[in-house]
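User: I'm writing a tutorial on reading structure tokens. Could you give me a worked example: one chain, its sequence, then its tokens, then a sentence or two explaining what the tokens reveal?
Assistant: Sure. Here is the example chain.
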Amino acid sequence: MADPETRPPYPTALGASDLKTITLLGHDLAEDIMGSVGFGELAFWLATQRRPSRGETRVFEAVLAALADHGFTPTAIVTRLTFLSAPDSVQGALAAGLLGGGSRFLGVTEDTGRFLHGVLESLDGALPSDEAGWDSVALRTVREQRGAGRFLPGLGHHVHKEGDPRTPRLMRIAAEEGLFGAHLSLFAAIGRVHPTVLGRTLPLNGAGVCGAVLADLGLPLPLLRGFALLARTAGLIGQLAEELRHPVARDIFLSVDLSNTSVPPNPFVPEPLGEADHDS
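And here are its predicted structure tokens:
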């Protein structure tokens, strides 16, 4: 073992231990945090290294609740199926579900937060002061996205086609706590103006509004998906608990396995390379 005086320093404001104590965020874990700080509050504190206010904690925990579970999504199904295959590996089942948190499920939270933040940065600090101003920015944003053939993250939902019930509730909670910031203002404006550009009305989905809320809370943008995964972990534990009581994974597996139909092979044929694709 290296001499303590020659070891490189590894500074951290998070967990550190000695013979008799554990320090977390500058506090005694056992005496100051356990039994006094809720898990949602602690998760925020760990990510920002500042203790959130009561209002910030309420808004943050509302986001966690909104993202915890949304039924038999692919993440829930794969968690149950992995548990069916390897019941001795709860961590494997949970990991399988979390690995499915991508651009279509859960990842929308980060995508929306990053997108909104990018638009706000382009304003160089000249943020609108009223709803009409936000609508103008949103209208320009939607037109630019459509002109470039790009989707607007956070817009649309495969089930809640007439409105995601999580969205207005989260907006109300943020407003009640005085935390309805620029990201939410832009997101709400996109919800108001997009029909004039797209020719149809799409709901602002719950994952998207969560991204706007988390960005308004000042949480690190590269970690927004991490908070969605934190929330979904609780939901996946619930899925496994229900699977233990009322198993459906085997039925899901058999419904596919016993209904497959053999067809002739369909070989993949690569597209021919264009002139620009050849080496010069």
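What the tokens reveal: Confidence is low (pLDDT under 50) at residues 276-280. The chain has twelve helices and three strands.
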